[in-house]
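Quick one:
INPUT:
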């Protein structure tokens, strides 16, 4: 053969090899998201089905089967099949096993850490794996093999016939066997100048391959087997090149209970960015200069105004709401990250004015990769012009609710990647990174810090759902399971289990990344009480170290579900975080101010008036029909508002309406202590956020219908004043300052742009946009209709403008003195004094003084604030303050003051200590420094 012929032959062989490799890549990497390689065999006649997982691996060698009886002479065994061939029927021997492992009963006391971790499971036989004659390494390998296959725990009689059987919950074994994985610094993707490394924790997988793509839509260009690292349970692959710009997925061959041996095509749970609709993960180096806006590395952090958590004044904002209706933003940027870079838009001018007044933080509703917002081809509903009380608008919106561009976003898909629908191009994964940073940079430049709403308590899906990532890689590990092995759903979706080592690690790694790479300044945790306190404390230390600065953590501390009352661990809940420095939202003053609770439904929503909207003093039509309420209800509400103004501190002492002087934790709030935090930085004060009706809407439901639009605006500002004057973190929902309405919608998470509108022209607050969506509001329609149809309730532009300016004055007052933001409980106890308390109080007036002598940043010798909720002016005599040189706060006296009533009507008689307070007004008197 000639050299030429030999060369052609070699080239043809090489070409054929490449073609085969390409075909293999396409077959594995471009096919369906799940390929069933070996179905689970029948376990009962007729159908293969999931077997309840009632037994628990406690650690690598111990198991427990709660409540299972032990007939005399019975024995326990583990049966394993790598391909799901086990056939188990009661009364017959097990068939199809690759391996059988004998188990021994264990009577030794369980180690304290295991006893605490598994305290929620019922008593039952505890068993240990009997592995004789093997060294530790071989024993671990044997156990690893068990966890990578179908395994059933079987109770047999002496003849080997099945008495009972169950599948097992594996997290205890995985956490023990692969404990060192929690210390890995490089899960996910690592890109260097000459190398790209991929690393996936998948300890139960039998094989993992890496699929690579040239871009977000091309067919697979390569598939390569990854290397198993038995000590950590990871699969890794290093390639000798910087592969930035390529995309990838993993092909994970894994046993799925109830289904069989499958190959799942899945994105990286540590994805840094993705292609359109999260189909593929992007290879990217977040430190690349190409992904940083000009000046990104040099820009100082916007943290100078927040030295303590109590300095935070937060505005909770949804990215799409902010600009989708703002015509001063170029059309292509509306509803996008880039809208925040339009410095002269109406929305940015609004934020700048708030920042100038004293706002410190913008908190963004979820901006991680969201499962329920289509990133391509989302539809815009055509909402008909219809009456203010018509059902036509909501029918049009809800017809496309699953296909439109709107969702609050509490549906996590990939925790560490920005959401693509807010980027100019979802297909180019780099754009969402760059533009997210541009948004943060623009807000920081304005002097506003950026907070982020995060949702690590659940995933959008679990199991083999196409939007399930974690559970398709390590089935049964990342989600919290009930006693039968089914995924808990108490948080509305598939609950995660951050008590498991690697789910906790995923959360810690993710939050640290957001703080380090995107300069997020604080985090709000959705349903934080579903996570352990210990994990949240570890997260606090980790994120501070990653950011190189204090990063504030706050969250919802509601106590409910399968973890309630510490059933599984010490929770990150209201009553369990005391002393941690992590803040929770307080419902004490919120409920007293608004009336009722977030769970009210039907006519109770109208009847349960609050301190702000007529409790006992101005009953609406429905409240007037209800059984009479005792006068003590108003006194109790006033005390709960004082609890909020004092920062909900456990040890602060207050004279109550019954003339007792009690610590706040001795005051009752629905069977719980009203005061529950150790330090003021551990509480978030609010009267409105994205959940439930807006403050304007709750007042529309509860105030007498004849209340004028001017008075409704005043009541709105009183609600904001309760938060502005309270010790702790001040938290406001975007639009509270412009009388924002969602047309009475109590749950607008998927109600589209129509019901979630924000109007920075200050002409329309959204009230009367039609009956809100039927699913969450239909039971209230009979009472909503006459309210929505009443044009007198809808505010005029001048009402909106007045509220806007009055709110800014409140922020200026809070910013004017550090006395409103005391950082320690000792300082609050020493400097805050309530007046007009006890049984002889006027319960419609809250009054408190703050001593500024010797306190840095106080600005005044002392402050005295009043919040008068009465419809008439009130006179209050405080003889203890007689002789003090009080004058109105400079903000009230400024020519541009929004509210003219304090300057025109408020009076202080120095000799007697008598104060005259205008109706429905919040005002502050000050003593000048000597």
């Amino acid at each position: 053969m000639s050299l030429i012929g030999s060369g052609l032959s070699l080239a043809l062989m090489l070409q054929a090899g490449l073609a085969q490799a390409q075909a293999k890549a396409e077959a594995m990497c471009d096919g369906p998201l799940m390929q069933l390689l070996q179905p689970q065999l029948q376990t009962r006649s007729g159908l293969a089905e999931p077997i309840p997982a009632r037994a628990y691996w406690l650690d690598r060698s111990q198991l427990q089967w709660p409540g299972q009886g032990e007939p005399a002479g019975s024995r326990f065994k583990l049966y394993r099949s790598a391909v799901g061939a086990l056939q188990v029927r009661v009364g017959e021997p097990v068939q199809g096993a690759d391996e059988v492992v004998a188990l021994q009963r264990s009577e030794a006391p369980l180690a304290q850490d295991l006893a605490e971790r598994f305290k929620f499971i019922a008593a039952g036989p505890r068993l240990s794996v009997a592995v004789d004659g093997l060294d530790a390494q071989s024993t671990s390998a044997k156990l690893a093999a068990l966890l990578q296959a179908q395994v059933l725990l079987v109770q047999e009689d002496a003849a080997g016939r099945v008495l009972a059987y169950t599948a097992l919950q594996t997290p205890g074994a995985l956490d023990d066997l692969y404990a060192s994985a929690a210390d890995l610094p490089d899960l996910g993707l690592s890109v260097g100048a000459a190398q790209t490394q991929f690393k996936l924790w998948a300890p139960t997988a039998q094989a993992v391959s890496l699929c690579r793509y040239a871009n977000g839509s091309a067919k697979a260009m390569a598939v390569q087997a990854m290397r198993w690292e038995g000590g950590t349970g990871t699969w890794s692959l290093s390639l000798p090149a910087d592969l930035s710009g390529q995309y990838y997925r993993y092909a994970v061959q894994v046993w799925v209970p109830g289904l069989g041996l499958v190959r799942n095509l899945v994105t990286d749970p540590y994805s840094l960015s993705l292609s359109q609709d999260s189909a593929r993960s992007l290879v990217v180096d977040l430190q690349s200069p190409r992904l940083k806006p000009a000046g990104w590395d040099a820009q100082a952090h916007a943290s100078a105004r927040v030295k303590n958590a109590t300095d935070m004044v937060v505005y909770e904002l949804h990215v799409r709401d902010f600009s989708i209706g703002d015509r001063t933003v170029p059309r292509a940027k509306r509803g996008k990250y880039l809208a925040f870079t339009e410095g002269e838009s109406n929305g940015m001018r609004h934020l700048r004015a708030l920042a100038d007044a004293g706002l410190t933080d913008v908190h963004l509703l979820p901006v991680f990769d969201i499962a329920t917002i289509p990133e391509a081809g989302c539809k815009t509903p055509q909402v008909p012009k219809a009456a203010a009380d018509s059902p036509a608008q909501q029918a049009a919106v809800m017809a496309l609710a699953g296909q439109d561009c709107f969702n609050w976003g509490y549906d996590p898909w990939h925790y560490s990647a920005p959401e693509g629908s807010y980027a100019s191009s979802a297909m180019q994964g780099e754009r969402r990174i760059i533009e997210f940073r541009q948004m943060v940079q623009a807000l920081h430049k304005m002097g506003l810090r950026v907070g982020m709403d995060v949702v690590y308590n659940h995933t959008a899906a679990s199991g083999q759902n196409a939007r399930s990532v974690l559970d398709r890689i390590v089935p049964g590990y990342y989600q919290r399971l009930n006693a039968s092995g089914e995924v808990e759903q108490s948080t509305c979706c598939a609950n995660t289990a951050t008590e498991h080592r690697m789910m906790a690690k995923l959360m810690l790694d993710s939050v640290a990344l957001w703080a380090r790479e995107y300069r997020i300044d604080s985090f709000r945790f959705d349903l934080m009480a579903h996570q352990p306190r210990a994990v949240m404390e570890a997260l606090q230390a980790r994120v501070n170290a990653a950011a190189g600065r204090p990063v504030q953590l706050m969250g919802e501390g509601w106590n409910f579900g399968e973890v309630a009352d510490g059933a599984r661990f010490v929770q990150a809940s209201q009553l369990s975080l005391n002393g941690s420095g992590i803040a929770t939202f307080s419902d004490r003053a919120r409920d007293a101010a608004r009336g009722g609770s977030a769970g009210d439904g039907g006519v109770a929503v109208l009847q349960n008036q609050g301190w702000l909207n007529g409790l006992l003093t101005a009953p609406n039509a429905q409240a007037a029909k209800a059984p009479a309420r005792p006068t003590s209800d108003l006194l109790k509400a006033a005390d709960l508002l004082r609890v909020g103004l004092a920062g909900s501190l456990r040890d602060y002492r207050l004279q109550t309406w019954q003339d007792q002087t009690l610590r706040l934790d001795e005051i009752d709030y629905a069977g719980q202590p009203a005061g529950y935090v150790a330090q003021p930085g551990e509480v978030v004060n609010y009267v409105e956020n994205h959940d439930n009706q807006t403050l304007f809407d709750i007042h529309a439901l509860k105030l007498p219908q004849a209340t004028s639009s001017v008075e409704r605006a005043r009541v709105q500002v009183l609600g904001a004043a309760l938060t502005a004057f309270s010790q702790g973190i001040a938290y406001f929902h975007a639009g509270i300052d412009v009388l924002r309405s969602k047309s009475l919608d109590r749950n607008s998470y998927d109600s589209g742009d129509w019901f979630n509108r924000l109007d920075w022209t200050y002409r329309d607050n959204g009230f009367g946009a039609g009956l809100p969506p039927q699913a969450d509001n239909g039971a209230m329609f009979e009472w909503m209709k006459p309210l929505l149809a009443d044009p007198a309730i809808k505010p005029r532009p001048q009402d909106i403008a007045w509220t806007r300016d009055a709110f800014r004055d409140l922020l200026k007052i809070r910013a004017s003195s550090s006395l409103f933001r005391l950082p320690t409980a000792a300082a609050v106890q020493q400097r805050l004094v309530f007046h007009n308390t006890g049984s002889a109080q006027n319960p419609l007036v809250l009054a408190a003084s703050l001593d500024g002598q010797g306190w840095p940043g106080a600005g005044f010798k002392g402050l005295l604030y009043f919040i008068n909720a009465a419809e008439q002016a009130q006179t209050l005599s405080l003889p203890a303050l007689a002789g003090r040189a009080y004058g109105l706060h400079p903000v009230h006296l400024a020519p541009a003051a929004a509210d003219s009533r304090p300057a025109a009507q408020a009076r202080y008689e120095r000799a007697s200590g008598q104060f005259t307070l205008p109706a429905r007004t919040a005002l502050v008197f000050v003593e000048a420094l000597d």
